[in-house]
Amino acid sequence: MLSPAILIELLHSRRFGVEYQPIVEVKSGEAFGHEALARFYTASGEAVPPQAVFDALEAHPLALYQVEHTLKRLQIDEAPAGELFINLDPDTFHIASKDKGPHPLVDLVGRRHGLTVEIIENSSVSDADKSLAMADAFAARNVRLALDDIGAPASVLSLPVLLQMDFLKFDRHWWERWHSPGYRKLLQTLVRFAREHGQATILEGVETPAHWQAAMELGVDYVQGFFFRDCFHSVHP
């Protein structure tokens, strides 16, 4: 748990930044784009796990939305050239959906060319409904969409949401089950389905040469992970 004192100081002093992780095209081996990852720090410069911050903010919806909006603006303004992927939780998007008029996050994202919104995978039916509503809002502005965390523990795969995506991102936990014939067959089937449906695929958690080789054999379009850590670019507070 993140202590209230650390959380308040972190937010008040704006001790957050962004790290851009490259998304690499398998065929060329070159960076296709980057995913913007939120980073948080204590007053002494120690890293705070992002999920701990977001979990602590769940009980304070307006503060959560303010932090997310500020982070998204930073991620967009400081982004390197190429396709930019930013992730967005349906709950955060839903906070501002209750107001009439244009959605501020849709307007913010819609200003940048070459941007893909990653929808965090669902964990319940209500999350799936929020994800679908969010996907519809961004699709109406011709913003590309990616479904994130496919295959993560405790995730729920919503077929209507999946069918609306431009990119399917497979979670790093697939590597933990790589030697299971059933899981390998399922992943191969999903990759084949995406190709036949005109969707691009991204495999996360690529950390070793063996992972890179396996990704090429699997036939995914793009990979992402610490194997490309030398290409990282960070923007600190």
From TrEMBL:
<dbReference type="GO" id="GO:0071111">
    <property type="term" value="F:cyclic-guanylate-specific phosphodiesterase activity"/>
</dbReference>
<dbReference type="InterPro" id="IPR001633">
    <property type="entry name" value="EAL_dom"/>
</dbReference>
<dbReference type="InterPro" id="IPR035919">
    <property type="entry name" value="EAL_sf"/>
</dbReference>
<dbReference type="InterPro" id="IPR050706">
    <property type="entry name" value="Cyclic-di-GMP_PDE-like"/>
</dbReference>
<feature type="domain" description="EAL">
    <location>
        <begin position="1"/>
        <end position="237"/>
    </location>
</feature>
<dbReference type="Pfam" id="PF00563">
    <property type="entry name" value="EAL"/>
</dbReference>
<protein>
    <submittedName>
        <fullName>EAL domain, c-di-GMP-specific phosphodiesterase class I (Or its enzymatically inactive variant)</fullName>
    </submittedName>
</protein>
